[in-house]
Amino acid sequence: MSNLVLALKTLDLKVADYMSPKPLVVKDDSSLADAITIMADEQIGNLVVEKRHKPIGILTERQILEHLSEHKKILSIRLDNIKLSPFDIVGIDTRVIDAAQLMIKKKARLLVFDARKLVGIITATDMVRAFRRTAVNPDLTKVLSTRLYTVNYDDTILAATKLMHQKRIGSVIVLKNKKPYGIFTERDLLVNVLSNDVETHNSVGGYCTVPLVTSGLGIKGRDASKVMSKSKIKRLVLTKTKTKKICAIVTARDIVEAFTLSFPSED
Fold first, then answer.
1. Is the CB of residue 257 less than 8 Å from the CB of residue 104?
2. 20 to 30 A Cα–Cα from 101, which one of 23, 125, 178, 199?
């Protein structure tokens, strides 16, 4: 079967086949601490918040990181006192490619509705899983980031969190003896730190993800997604072919964007 035929099949894939069904929902009067516990226990990065049985926003790992950076601790507040992430809506029959284009254009999370009922959420990771069925293997040059931020092993968790908040990034590379050792992500903050009541003045190196998974610069989108899926990561650090020096990073959302760029616009 030709690459073109496989690519066209992918255009017909529906959100219903790749969404994460039955997303967890909490009420807006729930506490931030309880919400963090739920997200950590379930290892999810998005928690739908509702008011009067209607979704009003999404609590994300990024907002938790920002809250900690600004207040230095998790305050005893309710979710209705937090600025939640907005969302857009897609239907179960929406094509994955259309949902992906909406996600990239609006920079928003996507909730899936069947009529007026919330039935799922479709994330960048879900979309990448769908796109792996295509023969398309897009170039990542236009979407990867060459700005890498680092912290030292003995820097505090709070210092790493503040840097991530300041630079609006989801991860930092952790150096040990001036060499790349691991990566500290928003998920590490949630699962390794906050869910275990770890003091934020502790060394970040003890709570980062190791070993650091890398691939060579020039890897294509579908190949990168396979590495990320196998390693259960959402960010892949890239290295220069000859020197093996880290030089870039690509995320699941970046890969979604690369796939959308590989398909012709149907506006």
1. yes
2. 23
pLDDT tens-digit map of 238-253: 999 888 899 999 999 9
Q: Which two tokens stand for residue 88?
A: 């857009």
φ and ψ at 27, to 5 degrees?
A: -80, 155
> In terms of DSSP bridges, do strands 25-27 and 46-51 run parallel, antiparallel, or are they unpaired?
parallel
- How far apart CA 242 and CA 142 sit, in angstroms, is 22
On the question of pLDDT at 265 being above 60, the answer is no
Phi, psi (deg, nearest 5) at residue 228: -65, -40
Q: Closest by alpha carbon to 60, among 42, 29, 86, 80? A: 86
CB 100 within 8 A of CB 80: no
Q: Are strands 117-122 and 20-21 parallel, antiparallel or unpaired?
A: antiparallel
Segment (H or E) for 21: strand 20-21
Residue 52 has which token pair?
Answer: 């009067």
- Kindly list the structural domains of the chain, giving each domain's residue range(s) and its CATH number in brackets, ordered by start: 3-131 (3.10.580.10), 150-261 (3.10.580.10)
- The rounded distance, in Å, linking the Cα atoms of 68 and 200 is 9
Per DSSP, 145 falls in state B
pLDDT of residue 184 exceeding 70, the answer is yes
Place of tokens 């529906």: 14
> Average pLDDT in the 184-196 region?
96
pTM of the model: 0.92
- Residues facing residue 85 across a β-bridge: 58
